[in-house]
Amino acid sequence: MSNPVQPNDSTEQKIFDAAHEVFIQKGMDGAKMQEIADRAGINKALLHYYYRSKEKLYEMVARAIISRALPVIRDFLETEHPLEEKIRLFVHFYIDLISRNPYIPIFVISEMNKHPDRFIENVLPKEIPKPDAFFRQVQEEVDAGRIRSIKPQHLLVNMVSLCIFPFVAKPMLRIVVGMNSQEMRTFLEERETEVVRFIMASLKPD
Amino acid sequence: MSNPVQPNDSTEQKIFDAAHEVFIQKGMDGAKMQEIADRAGINKALLHYYYRSKEKLYEMVARAIISRALPVIRDFLETEHPLEEKIRLFVHFYIDLISRNPYIPIFVISEMNKHPDRFIENVLPKEIPKPDAFFRQVQEEVDAGRIRSIKPQHLLVNMVSLCIFPFVAKPMLRIVVGMNSQEMRTFLEERETEVVRFIMASLKPD
DNA sequence: ACCGGCATTAACCATTTGGTTAAACCATGA
DNA sequence: TCATGGTTTAACCAAATGGTTAATGCCGGT
């Protein structure tokens, strides 16, 4: 269940891993230093010895979480591919990333919502990849009539929505759609194929 | 900014409204009874006079939030319409609901994620609308070849994802896509048209 | 053997937090 | 007018929480 960035038995790392687990699951407000200490199997004072405060510890963990998602996004936005291929790759790697770290989007969304200032100032990196090149590429395809007319921004948001949301809303979906844990798993596994098909079908020129 | 269910100056209502604001914005963990009391302009002891505990107060507020979304969903799942019309109506009313109450999905998602047991046992109503009829309708359309082949569950999840996610991820999207507050507003206003078009285009039989 | 310095802990501290209590307030009806 | 019942408050309490301190453990180098 834990997801240490690098397996490492040092006390510092044990603390970081424990903090990672706790912050991910409970967020800044719900996380308690005592619980982190307990999970790391050490004294509470050690937390402050290695990381000065809850705030600092949180920031390190949050940055680590964010930076696990960034390479995939950067990759998608920077590599050159025909549009269809690019979409396919994005959906593939993005769903793959989120399947393996389903807590990332929920964490980002809820923390960013509760403490936007802290998150933007102290957690998000200064340089975040910009989607301008992708937008240009989509616009070219539209202009050339190879896909139907759509605003690039909407296409991007649609892609991201279709990939992320089901994982974010998993508990709610399970109840509404009425699936057991196993059905849910297969359902989410089908998503990759389904999402690609859904987007491609929608983009076919009229 | 506040959103009292029914304007009413009674102390009880003032407390409820204040609690609504605070819980919505900070969730169970981040909300403090003192802040609720302050916003309601009353003594902290009064909170416990009207609502026995933080837990109880939270449950009432959370139930109220949930029940604001339910009628729209129930309506969509129960009324009879041709599929295309149904989708149009769903997107319209759903996006409308969320535009006016953008905090609902974030609240539900993050609270349900942090305290699934409490939420499922004490907040969610026993009877939640089931989408079986909708699934059947989609399947009929597929069988009749009037839309391309797609699993009804995926279609529903896609619809919901496209409607909700942009509102949920607004702060993140703003940064990634690089929009200012005004651009974001127009962008979200375009969503209704865009989402309907996106879904319809995708469903056209091959 | 022992020194010096990092690692670790128990005990402690101040503040915050959810919750309680007993007294005061205030309107209403007898 | 005053008794009564619901309403509101100041003061208080115990537990939890983030953080500190001073002492101890421990290990490598001399």
The SS-based structural class of chain A is mainly alpha
Subunit organisation of the chains = homodimer
SSE topology string of chain A: HHHHHHHHHHH
End-to-end distance of chain A: 47 Å
Percent strand of chain A: under 5%
Q: Biggest interface and its residues per chain?
A: A-B, 57 and 57 residues
Uncertain runs of chain A = 1-6
| Amount of helix of chain A | over 70%
Largest sheet geometry of chain A: none
Shape of chain A: elongated
Number of helical regions of chain A: 11
Which SSEs are present, and which pair or pack?
2 copies of one chain form a homodimer.
Chain A lengths: L10 H20 L2 H8 L3 H7 L3 H25 L4 H18 L2 H12 L1 H8 L8 H12 L8 H17 L1 H9 L2 H23 L3
Helix pairs in contact in A: 1-2, 1-4, 1-6, 4-5, 5-9, 5-11, 6-7, 9-11
The first copy, chain A, binds a DNA duplex (30 and 30 nucleotides) through helix 3.
Write a structural description.
Two copies of one chain form a homodimer. Chain A has 206 residues and is mainly alpha-helical. The first copy, chain A, contains eleven helices and no strands. The longest helix of chain A has 25 residues. Chain A is elongated. The interface between A and B is large, with 57 and 57 residues. Chain A binds a DNA duplex (30 and 30 nucleotides) through helix 3.
